[in-house]
Amino acid sequence: MATSPKRVDYLKCARRHNHDAGTLLAGGASAKPNAGQLFGLSVECGVKALLVHLGAAVTADGTVRDHKLHIPFLITEITVLPDGRPIADLHAAAPSLAKLTDWAIEHRYWRAGAIPLDSLSNWQAAAKEVLAHLDNIA
Description:
By secondary structure, the chain is mostly helical. The chain is about 50% helix and about 0% strand. The chain is globular and about 40 Å long.
């Protein structure tokens, strides 16, 4: 009997969100709020892909079991990676993670003018760094 693939694939989602964010960003200023949201989601999925790669427990559908947090809490509340290394190792590989403190999953509900778009380049850099780190370990 063939097994069906798990519904959750954090790495593919991280890449998809990053690609879509870049496409939106190229579309002009009015798309920046949604591009920013997708860059943050790309980082979040990328970090969760790393957790899975390093041995985090997952549910039957592939969801990380013990880390249901969103950015920025996902990268501030976790202190040790599943393989025992400190989270500082991830921060060294992706230094722009430290600049995600003003990204929030709740931005999806905010007026566009209330989203801190001055940080958009930081969110984009963090997504790029996390994906590059994943490319180097996978």
